[in-house]
Amino acid sequence: MADIHRILADHRSKKKGQSPDTQIEDVPTATSSEIPDIFFDEILVENKLSRMEIIVFMYIYRRTWCRPNLHKEFGISQLLSHSEMAHNLNVEVEQVLGALRSLEELSFISTIRSGQYFVRKYFTKENDERFGQSYHDFEL
Fold it and tell me: What does the radius of gyration of the chain's CA atoms come to, in whole angstroms?
């Protein structure tokens, strides 16, 4: 991909007065997150999660497993604040807190302390065992 950008950067326009720098716009690149298929094939089918529960769960899951995270080997997500999460998701804080409570009741997340959540890589203890996921002896 870098080769294409270099070629485009060196390209000269046939139109007078246009420099190559003004031709190439900063095009945002899309990011992606790897979510195990088991989430779509089993978790969503077997657990009728609400839209808000899915949004909050995926937000925490992505912060834990799909983004740079110092606590990834332990499955811990560090959130700065619930209000920041609500702002990022464009929802009310009360909706976030309600979804967090529901997800904890369903054992998809565990609160370690306020703003710090344990999230299993394969969503349940049974699935973690099935797929050989360990957390370096971290137990709740």
Answer: 21
| Rounded Cα distance, 12 and 120, in Å | 52
CB 77 within 8 A of CB 60: yes
Q: What is the pTM of this model?
A: 0.74
| Nearest alpha carbon to residue 60 among 47, 78, 38, 45 | 78
H/E segment holding residue 113: strand 109-113
Per-residue pLDDT reduced to its tens digit, 76-122: 887 778 899 999 999 999 999 999 999 999 999 998 888 889 999 99
Enumerate domains of the chain plus CATH numbers. Answer: 37-130 (1.10.10.10)
